[in-house]
Amino acid sequence: MKRIGVFTSGGDAPGMNACIRAVVRGAVYHGIEVYGIRRGYNGMINGEMSKMDSHSVSNIVQRGGTILKSARSKEFMTPEGRKKAYANLMDLGIEGLVAIGGNGTFTGAMIFGNEYGIPTVGAPGTIDNDLYGTDYTIGFDTAVNTALDAIDRIRDTASSHDRIFFIEVMGRDSGYIAVQSGIAGGAELVMVPEVLTPISEVVETLKQGWSRSKSSSIIIVAEGDEEGSAQEVADKIKRQVSEDADIRVTTLGHTQRGGPPSAYDRILASRLGLGALEGLMAGQKNVMAGIINNDLVYTPFEDTIRLPKPINEDLLRMVKILSV
Amino acid sequence: MKRIGVFTSGGDAPGMNACIRAVVRGAVYHGIEVYGIRRGYNGMINGEMSKMDSHSVSNIVQRGGTILKSARSKEFMTPEGRKKAYANLMDLGIEGLVAIGGNGTFTGAMIFGNEYGIPTVGAPGTIDNDLYGTDYTIGFDTAVNTALDAIDRIRDTASSHDRIFFIEVMGRDSGYIAVQSGIAGGAELVMVPEVLTPISEVVETLKQGWSRSKSSSIIIVAEGDEEGSAQEVADKIKRQVSEDADIRVTTLGHTQRGGPPSAYDRILASRLGLGALEGLMAGQKNVMAGIINNDLVYTPFEDTIRLPKPINEDLLRMVKILSV
Amino acid sequence: MKRIGVFTSGGDAPGMNACIRAVVRGAVYHGIEVYGIRRGYNGMINGEMSKMDSHSVSNIVQRGGTILKSARSKEFMTPEGRKKAYANLMDLGIEGLVAIGGNGTFTGAMIFGNEYGIPTVGAPGTIDNDLYGTDYTIGFDTAVNTALDAIDRIRDTASSHDRIFFIEVMGRDSGYIAVQSGIAGGAELVMVPEVLTPISEVVETLKQGWSRSKSSSIIIVAEGDEEGSAQEVADKIKRQVSEDADIRVTTLGHTQRGGPPSAYDRILASRLGLGALEGLMAGQKNVMAGIINNDLVYTPFEDTIRLPKPINEDLLRMVKILSV
Amino acid sequence: MKRIGVFTSGGDAPGMNACIRAVVRGAVYHGIEVYGIRRGYNGMINGEMSKMDSHSVSNIVQRGGTILKSARSKEFMTPEGRKKAYANLMDLGIEGLVAIGGNGTFTGAMIFGNEYGIPTVGAPGTIDNDLYGTDYTIGFDTAVNTALDAIDRIRDTASSHDRIFFIEVMGRDSGYIAVQSGIAGGAELVMVPEVLTPISEVVETLKQGWSRSKSSSIIIVAEGDEEGSAQEVADKIKRQVSEDADIRVTTLGHTQRGGPPSAYDRILASRLGLGALEGLMAGQKNVMAGIINNDLVYTPFEDTIRLPKPINEDLLRMVKILSV
After folding, report:
1. Above 80 in pLDDT, residue C244?
2. Quick one: which residues bind Mg(2+) (chains A, B, C, D) (predicted)?
3. Which entry of C12, C53, C91, C128 is annotated as an active-site residue?
4. Tens-place pLDDT, residues B102-124
5. Cross-strand bridge partners of residue D99
6. pLDDT < 50 regions, chain A
7. Residue extent(s) of CATH 3.40.50.450 domains in chain C
8. What is the pLDDT averaged over residues C28-48?
9. By CB distance 3.0 to 4.6 Å, which of A177, A261, B273, D268 could disulfide with B22?
C-alpha cells in the first residue's frame, strides 16, 4: 500500500485531531503517502483532498473538533455519489482509507467497500461510547469530564440554595455519559435509556433523601431516556411532589462535544489512529480498530453496527450505594 | 460597634465565600465579633446564626456558592417577619449587618434599616453585573469566563461542521455577560436587552459572513433579549434564511453561577467584603460598597436600586468591527 | 464485621476523598459502622478517630487532597507504636481497616496484620501508578492531565519562540506520568527511569527535528531519570549542541498532586473504595483491591510491594512514531 | 495611512493573538492594508512579512502564544539592522507599525522612530504588568489565574499534610502577579521586589499561624524578591525554625506564560489592539495605548520606559488582614 486517505465523519469528537495526527505521522514513519479528505464523504465526492505531511498535523494534538471538518453526506447514500467518490480516489491512486467516526460512517464504508473493494479501517470517534468493539470511543472521556465540570458548578448552586437539579447530558441511545458523570458528580440518581427508571422511583429517592436531611439533589438524565427530556421529567416530578420544591433544569448540550481532549482521549486516539493505519497496511478491511482490555482488536463493521454495547450494571448499582 | 452579622441573599455567585471570609477575617483583625446568618433573611427570622472565627472561613476562598447558603425570603417582606428578625438580632446584640447580594437583598435591607435603624452595608454579589455603584459585581468575571469556556468548546464543533450556533447566556435585564463573553469568544453578533437587534439585522450579518466565506458563526443571545430566547431567535432566523442552514441552539443555564471564582472575583470580593465591614465600622449605613475606577466608593441603596447601569456602547461597536 | 476504620497515608492523591466517600457510604449501605482515622498511622497511635456517617462525606467527591489528612509515621515503624495503635483500635471495637495509600502504607498494614491479626484491605492511592496489582492507581489520571495542561501551556511559548523545553514531571521510580503526558502532549522525546535514553540520543532527536525544520521541541523527563533532573539533562545537552540553542527548563512539582480529581479518578476511587470495603466484609485481608482489565481483583500486599510494574513499551515506541 | 505592519516582540503573553486579530480586523474594517511581521524585529530585518486579511486571524482569539512568533533581536540593536528593517518596510510601502510587547520592544520602536520617522503605536503585552501607562497589561490576568490554579492545587496537598509551601511566581521587577495570586490564593504572606519582607517577619508570621493552630501555610515569593528565590528563602527559614518543619518549594515557571487567555485578557487585548490601530490612524506615534480607569489613553514610550509603576500598597495590607 503506497497511498491512503484519512477522513472524519459524523458528529465531531475531541481527540479526532490526535487521531488524524497519528494516522499521518504513522504513514510518514512507514513511508506511505497520506491524503486528507475534507468534510467526510462529501469531500470524497467533491474532490476536496490534499496531501498531508508531518507538518500538516503539528500543534493539533490538543485541539477539539477536527481540522479535516466533518459532515453527514446524503449524496454518499446514493450509488451515483459513491461512484464519484471512487473515481476521485482512483484519480489520486488512493488504495485504502482510515475512517474516523461512528456507526453511520462505518455503514457507508462497508457499503463502499463491498461495491468497490476499497479497504477501510475505522477508528471509533464519538462522544457517546455506543460502539461495540472497543471499551471506549475517542471523545468519551473528554465529554464525561466536561459534563462533570458542569455538574460540579451546578452543585455549588444546588447546595447553596437547597435545590433539586435535573441535568440532561448527551446520549441518545446510550447512558454511558450519564452513568459516568453521575457517579463522578455524586448524583443521587441517573436515568438512562438502557434501564427504565420510573418516575415513582425518582420521587421515592428524593423523599428518602429529604428524610435523611439531604437538602440538595442532583439527578442526571440521559438525552434518550424513556421518561423524556430532563425538563419533562422535572415537570412530572413537580406534579407529584410539590410546587414548593425548588426544582431546576439544565441541559448541557453541545458544550459536551468540544474542548481540548483529555490525556486519556489523546492517547486512545493516538493508539487507535496508529492501529487503524497499521491494520490497513497489514491487509485488514471493513473493520474497526478498538481497544478491549488494553489490547488492540479489529472488529468487523458488521458487528460494530449490529451488536449492542450493554451498559455496566455494576456502575448503576454503585450510584445507589454512593448516594445513601 | 462590637458585634455584627453577615449573610448572603438572592442568587448565589462565585466569590461570595471570598467576601464572607474577608468580612470575618477583617472583623477578627479589628477585634469585632461576627455572626454568620444562614439562608439570608430566612435565617435572621428563624435564628439560624452562629459565631464565626478565623477558622470558620479557612479553605473557602476558592469555592463557588456560599457556605452561609442563600435564599429569597417571602416572610421578610412582611412586617411580622422583619419584627422577628430584629428581635433575634437584638437577642444576640448584633449592631450592624453586612449583606452580600443584589437589589432584592438591598431593598430588604433598606426597609429594615428604615424601620429599625439597624445599619447595613452591602457588597454587590451577583453574576449579572447589573448594579449601579460599582464597575463590576462579585461573580461576574467568573460567569463570563465560564460562558467563554462553553463558547470555545462550541466553536470547535461549529467550525468542524460549518454550523451557526445561537448561545444563550444569563442576563435577564442586562447584556453584560453577553457582550463580554461575545467579544472574548469571537462572536459574530451579540443580542442584548439594552439595545434591540432586529431579526433582519441578524439575517444580514449571517449573509454578509457567507458572502465572505465565513462558514461558521456564533451569535450570543442574552436571556432577556426582546426578540426572545435563543431558541426563539433561531426559529425566526431559520424561517427567514433556509431550512438547509445548519443552525443549533445551546442554553448555558445554571453552570454560569458556580465554579471556583476567578482571581479577579476573589480579589474584588475581598476588597468589597473588607470595604463593607470598614464602612460599617466608620458609621456608613444603607449603602453598598463598590469599586469605581479602582477606588472604593459607597452608594446609597436607594441609588443602586433605582438607577440603571448603562451598557458600554463601545464594546457593542467592537463586536461589529472584530467580526469583519 | 460490625465496625471498621478507614485512613489515608503517604503522599496525597486526587481521588482519595472519593475513595473515603465510597468506603463510608458503602459501610452505611451495608449497615457497618465506620471510623475515620486522621493523619494515617499517626492518628491510629494518637487516637484521632471519629465516627463517620453519610453526611461526613457530603460534597467531597470533587475535592483534591484528603479530608482525613495524611502523614508518614515513624512511630508506627516501631513495635511500641503499633501496640498503641492496636490498643486504640480495640478500645473502639474496630475489626478491620481500609488503607488508602501506596507501598509504604501497605508495608505497614502487612506487618501490623501479621502481628495483631487485624485484617486490612488496601486501595491504591498514589499519583505515580507504580503499584503492581492494578492497571491504574487513584490520582494518576488527574496528575497526567495536570501535567498535560502545563505542557500545553508551555507549548504555546515554545512554538512562539522556537524554543526547546525540558519539562520534569513526577515519577521517582516510574515513567508512567512521563510517558502518558508525553504522548498526549506531543512531546518529541520522553525520558523514563525504566529505560535509559542516553544524552546522545536526545541530541540526535533534536538534530533530526531541526533538519525537518521543527522549530520547537518538548522533552519530558521523569523525576527519577538516570541522566539526572531536567535541569541536569538540559545542561548536558546545551554543552553538546550549542550555547545559541534556546533551551528552557520547567519542573512541574507539587501542582501535580492536587486539584479536583478527573472523572476517571473519581470512578476508579469509588470502585476501589467499595471493592476494598466489600472485600474486607467478605473476609479478605492483607490484600490490595485493584482493577485489571476492568475487573476487580485482590492482590496480596506482599506482591504489590515486591513485584515491579513494567512500563508499556508500546507507548514508548509510539512517542517515536508520533514525533516524526 | 494605507498600509501598516503589526508584530509581537519580547516574551509572549496570552492575549497577543487576540490583539493581533483586533489590529487586523480593525484595519480591514477601516480599509487599511495590514502586513504581519514574523519573529519581531528579526522578521523586519529578514523580510518575513506577509499580507493578512480577515481570515488570517480566524479562530485565534482563544489561543495562547502568538501566531506571528516572537523573539528578542540583537541585530535590531545595531544601526545596520535597523537600516535593513527600514528598507524592507519601505519596499512594501508600510507607513506605520503596531508593536505588541513590553519595554524592550518599545525602546526599539522609539529609537527606530527617531531615526527613520516611521510611527509606531504600542500595545502592552507582557504577563508582568510592569508597564507605566496602563492599569493592566495583556496576559497579566491569565498569568494570575494560572498561578492561582497552581496555588489551589498545592493547597490541597498543603492542608492534607500540614505543610508549609513556598511558591515562586513570575515577576523579576514587579510583585503584581505575586500580590494578586497571593490574595486570591489565600496566602499567609507575599514577598515582592518592591517592598522588603525580612526573613524575620516570615518566621514571625509562621509562628503566629502555629500559635493559632494554622496547620498549613502558603507563602508566595516573586521571582525578583530581594531575599532570593523561593528555594533560598525556604532554606533560610528552615535554618531559623526547625528541621522538623515540613517545608516544600515549587517554582511555577513558564506555565504562567501560556494557555488560552482569560475573558479579561481577550477583551483588553481587543481594546488595546484596536486602540493602537486607531491611534496610529489618527496620527499618534511613539506612544503606547493603555487603559486607565476604563479609558483609552496614549502614553509616550519615553514615559512607559522610564517611569516606575508602583504596587498597590492597599493590596499588601489586605494580605495581612485576610491571613489573620
Report:
1. no
2. 103
3. C128
4. 999 999 999 999 999 999 999 99
5. D7, D122
6. none
7. 3-139+261-306
8. 97
9. B273
